[in-house]
Amino acid sequence: MPKYLANCIQIGIILVLWMPLVVTPGVFFPFLVGKTIYTHVIIEILFVLWLILLLSDNSFIPRRSLILILFGGYLFISFISAIFGVDFKHSFWSDYQRMGGIWDLLHWFLFTLIAVSILKSARVWKTILNWNLAVSLTLSIIALIQTYNIPSPLPDLLYHTGRAHSTLGNPSYLAGILTVNILIGIGFLFNSFVNSNIIDSHLKSTRNSLQHTDFTKYFRLFWSFSIIFGIWALLLTGTRGSFIGLFLGTGIFSAFLIRQDIKKFILPIASSGLIALIIVGVIIVGEITSSFSVVPSSSTTATTRLLETTLEEKTVSSRIELIKIGFRGMLNRPLLGWGPDNFARVFDKLAEPEFYSLIARSQDRAHNKIIEELSTKGLLGTTLYLSLWALLIWTIINRKRDIKSEIIAFSIAGALVAYFVQNLFLFDTPPTMLQWILLVAWIAADKQILTTNLSNVEQSSNSSTLINQQPNFIKEILSETLTKWILSIIFSTLLLLSIYFLNYRPFKAAQLFDQALYSSAQLEHSLKIAEQSNKTFPSMSIMPLQLLLAKGNSLWADMNIEEKQLFINFVIEEGEIALKISPNNPRLIATILPTLQDLAPSIKELEYLDPLLDELKNNAPNRAYTYERLAYHELRKGNYHESLRLISEFKEKAPLDGRGERSVWPRFEYIESEAEKGIKQKEIP
Q1: In angstroms, rounded to a whole number, what is the distance separating the alpha carbons of residues 142 and 596?
Q2: Would the N or C end of the chain have less CB density within 10 A of its end CB?
Q3: For 241-276, how does the pLDDT look when each residue is reduced to its tens digit (9 = 90+)?
Q4: Superfamily of domain 524-683
Q5: CA-to-CA distance for 33 and 38, rounded, in angstroms?
Q6: What is the domain partition of the chain in residue ranges?
Q7: 294/5: higher pLDDT
Q8: DSSP states along 173-222
Q9: pTM of the full predicted structure?
Q10: What's the rounded Cα separation, in Å, for the pair 281 and 235?
């Protein structure tokens, strides 16, 4: 029974690795929502199987690990930060666009715990990492099919022009996965030469040696293709941060090789270096000359973007400004921050109008993991996060291994460095988080693997000691078959409830909202579906509601009387519920206000909206939509000069090329036009 359960859990871990390939058409954010729900369901199933396994065999209880302790402490501080943050529900559940939050982090912690306790040998870990390489190779091939528009059975959803993203929906997410796996593939490739030398020296003339050599050759081919296609696809993503991370991670691995007997690695070094130079060189030459090109004109590679990078570039300048905003956010809430996943609140509160000259939309991420941690989890959360990273690196460097294990260990170290560097320009998402969690679990399990290799007898003795140290009443309880069955039934029941209420319902809500937002049906039908979506999983309904209200506001002038009444009822009912879920949310308030302002028949009714406007001014003082709502409010009151003054004040703050959110600027023009008409009418005797 224990062996069967352990094997099932290993299969489940492999299934989690295939998460990046999951795409769910017809669901809101089809490249991310399905992936995350798929992963959560499998991890929850694995967790229940693991708990049942522990009832039968407590040797699968993970040993005390400082890495796991720090990870658990980081999770705990994140939860405390959410409690004292500005929006607990958003910190816990996140939204459909990011699918992060504490709920997701909890699943990754459980996955790490399970992986460390189940994957107890170097051979099993090699299998797991090779499966992950297979996923990476598949993503690379799909990215090439996308970029070169190669006919295939892939759905139309995956074909597009521009930077390659494979099945991730975002080139940066794909790049984060490829960067880690390229370095792991390099580690396996180099390691294979050491393995074959050792085996050949002892069993050169035996049949087993020939079989091993043939088997190794196939794997070398697989690793080589993973590296080559990975580098190619990485260049096609046009992601500079990941490219820099790969360069530095490769440097870490190369520094390790310099310490070893370099003669063993002449062939793989020469081959890998030549292949990489040819791939990068051909692409660069093709881009800087007009004679030929290996990249479609609609695509931009990482090398092109790196060659064109300057501090004055708007993308670079915006990232620098986001760092400043995040740092100011940390100074406002230094200890625990604003709460996980709440950088949007930091941005709305502290960003200056000048930011619109760089990017004409509001931001919800700092695009720098350290700044994100500082602003959302404060100094406590950031300290634990960086301590965990330092411990991971120290564990790799400080532990003594044989040459075969050292090669893999330092390729893991290179992958860690690459991931850390690329996250200085990005942020964690569930697909990229999976890669980091694999590295964390491998390092945490490494000591246990080494101890097992040194003395299986000692491990058995320690396990017996652990059992003997348990209190008698616990042993008696756990030894009862009936008790085990009862606990197993309880765990299974809780699993089914979690799958339905915490996984199926948010997935169904995302599916319904996609129908509501993009349906060509009548407005009444779309609003009913949206209402059903909000009721299905209210905790994640805020962002979809904001988008639907923004769409309705833009179509207001084209609605007939019946449609306007339907929309008004929807705004009043759903807006009230949403404000209870996410109070003081400036972006939500900004999308609710236009309809309420148009609905108010007199100045007295307009004054009832003043508390909402005050919240808007307090939580998003310099946002374009705040000035637009304030100016329109004064216009409706008949204060035409004040309305014009507010718009003029924003224009003075914002640069000439900073047009603000796309939907706001036309509204400025409309308000100015109506205010000027109102002034002229007042002047007529």
Answers
A1: 47
A2: C
A3: 998 999 999 988 888 877 766 555 555 666 666 666
A4: Tetratricopeptide repeat domain (1.25.40.10)
A5: 9
A6: 63-97+311-402+420-447, 122-309, 524-683
A7: 5
A8: HHHHHHHHHHHHHHHHHHHHHHHHHHHHHHHTTSHHHHHHHHHHHHHHHH
A9: 0.91
A10: 11
Q: What's the confidence (pLDDT) of residue 284?
A: 61
Tell me how crowded residue 362 is: count the other CB atoms within 10 A of its CB. 20
Neighbour-count burial of 204, counting CB atoms closer than 10 A to its CB (0-12 exposed, 13-18 middle, 19+ buried): exposed
Asked if residues 586 and 619 have their Cβ atoms less than 8 Å apart, the reply is: yes
Phi, psi of 330 (to 5 degrees): -65, -40
Per the CB < 8 A criterion, the answer to whether 418 and 432 are in contact is no
Residue count of the chain, please give it.
Answer: 685
Nearest to 343 by CA among 366, 312, 319, 377: 366
146's tokens = 């996308």
* Side-chain half-sphere CA neighbours of 582 within 13 A: 30
Give me 206's structure tokens. Answer: 């035996």
C-alpha 123 chain-centroid distance: 29
Q: DSSP state, 504?
A: I
Please say whether the beta carbons of 373 and 387 come within 8 A: no
**Distance, CA of 350 to CA of 623 (rounded, Å):** 9
Cα 250 from Cα 247, distance rounded (Å): 5
pLDDT digits (tens, 9 = 90+) for 500-556: 999 999 999 999 999 998 877 788 899 999 999 999 999 999 999 999 998 888 888
121-141 pLDDT, tens digit each: 999 999 999 999 999 999 999
Cα(298)–Cα(380) distance, integer angstroms: 45
State both tokens at 302.
Answer: 């990482």
Angle, to 10 degrees, between the axis of helix 542-555 and the axis of helix 505-518? Answer: 10
Q: Residue 661 — φ and ψ, nearest 5°? A: -60, 140
